[in-house]
């Protein structure tokens, strides 16, 4: 198995202003869906956005396959009852059916060898009124930098095609690239 701790932003690793702005923009946008909700972030990495989500959610669970990523997150969020960390593979969630309000997958779908399994699991654990939020890179950007551990980068039509049979309502939105912060 690849060491995914090498492709996540661990605490203390100084990202660029643009990277930080993009992270904040995405998690801030997601937090609008989380008011009083039970939230699961699959592939949470070192947990960069869990704290922001927890400001609105009643419970945030961060899951990752890489133990080192969860160690980073545990050190940072130690003692916060509203944030739980779980080690699991994004193809199989160790959670009860219809137990989650919001599932997030940020910048990780391209690591999954079977993204349709992730979508099936998301549909299984989401409540009837639940929301699945996926954010992924646009491989057509001029400065696109593929991850050495990616399995495949999904285009918007392919992502839609995978989601549509599993979810009654699918919306595709482009979150604008964050402008570099001054």
Give a written overview of the molecule:
With 182 residues, this protein is of the alpha/beta class. A five-stranded parallel β-sheet has the order 3-2-1-4-5, sandwiched between helices. α2 links the parallel β1 and β2. The mean pLDDT is 87.
Distance between the termini: 39 Å
Mean pLDDT, to the nearest integer, reads: 87
The structural class is alpha/beta
Tally of DSSP helical segments: 5
The largest sheet, given as strand count, sense and whether it forms a barrel, is: 5 strands, parallel
Spatial strand order of the main sheet: 3-2-1-4-5
Write down the secondary-structure element order.
Answer: HEHEHEEHEH
The gross shape turns out to be: globular
What are the low-pLDDT stretches, counting only 5+ consecutive residues below 50?
Answer: none
Oligomer: single chain
**Strand composition percent:** 15-25%
Estimated helix fraction? 25-40%
DSSP summary, beta strand count? 5
| CA gyration radius, whole angstroms | 15 Å
């Amino acid at each position: 198995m690849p060491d995914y701790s090498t492709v996540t932003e661990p605490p203390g690793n100084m990202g660029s202003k643009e990277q930080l702005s993009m992270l904040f923009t995405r998690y801030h946008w997601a937090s609008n869906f989380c008011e009083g909700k039970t939230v699961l972030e699959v592939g949470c990495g070192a947990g960069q956005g869990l704290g922001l989500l927890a400001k609105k959610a009643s419970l945030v669970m961060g899951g990752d396959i890489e133990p080192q990523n969860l160690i980073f997150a545990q050190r940072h969020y130690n003692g916060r009852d509203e944030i739980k960390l779980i080690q699991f593979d994004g193809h199989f969630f160790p959670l009860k059916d219809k137990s989650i309000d919001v599932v997030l997958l940020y910048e990780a779908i391209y690591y999954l060898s079977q993204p349709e399994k992730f979508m099936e699991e998301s549909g299984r654990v989401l409540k009837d009124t639940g929301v699945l939020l996926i954010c992924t890179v646009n491989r057509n950007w001029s400065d696109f930098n593929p991850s050495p551990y990616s399995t495949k980068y999904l285009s918007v039509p392919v992502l839609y095609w995978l989601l549509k049979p599993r979810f009654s309502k699918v919306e595709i939105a482009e979150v604008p690239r964050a402008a570099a912060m001054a």
